[in-house]
Amino acid sequence: MVTGRMLKRGGQRMNDVSGKTPELVQAYRRMMERVKDQLEALGQAEKAAFPRLSASIEHAVEKAVELDELTREEAQLIGGYLRRDLDDAGQYLATTGHDLRSWLRFDLELLEDRLLEFLQRGVDQSRLELRAFEPSPADAAVERYRSGEITGPGALQCESCGAQAVFHAPAAIMACPRCGGGVFLRVTGTLSPVK
Could you tell me how far CA 113 lies from the centroid of its own chain? Predict the structure, then answer.
């Protein structure tokens, strides 16, 4: 099962993908496309909302392994990043009632059409899944993003110094250019100037 948490191999976190960054960023994009396609296909065949997003991510992970694009560990890691990003957005939208623009913290016109379509479909599905369990905002853990991981579009803020980085497409998270910090939090809410 793919989760939004970091995978571990031999006691070590598998979050530093810097040696294969371009390939894994492309893998994140391909996986997004496969999840979107699978959600569309399942939308025609299934009425039950809950398992669709998880099943679609699992399908995308298996497809990446089957096509020999990624090792199983890499595919699970990228699938976990994708799930984390969609869960984070779904949690935000479900608990605040705000729109996707507020979560991303930039104008939706900056996104490619297919990326925007994927995010809207995936986040809507994640929001439905979250409503099925009626999570309380107090129960939601603060997700930390680390340098070396892959993230989708949105804004992250350095936990150490508060500097913000805005991602308009999937990318590897780099160390903070201001302080060198490696731990970030998702920034949501109304647009404000970047520090």
Answer: 17
pLDDT tens string 19-40: 678 899 999 889 888 887 877 7
**Six-digit token string for 84:** 């984390």
Question: At CA 72, angle to CA 142 and CA 85, rounded to 5?
Answer: 25
CB 41 within 8 A of CB 111: no
Residue in this structure with the two tokens 């979107």, named with its chain if needed: 36
Q: What is the DSSP string of 67-98?
A: TTSS-HHHHHHHHHHHHHHHHHHHHHHHHH--
- Bridge partners (DSSP) of residue 33 are none
Nearest 5°: the CA angle 142, 104, 78 is 65
Distance between CA atoms of residues 162 and 140, nearest Å: 22
Q: What is the C-alpha separation between 75 and 27, in angstroms, rounded?
A: 8
Q: What angle do CA 112, 176, 117 make, to 5 degrees?
A: 15
Range with the largest mean pLDDT of 27-36, 48-57, 149-158: 149-158
Contact of 40 with 33, CB cutoff 8 Å: no
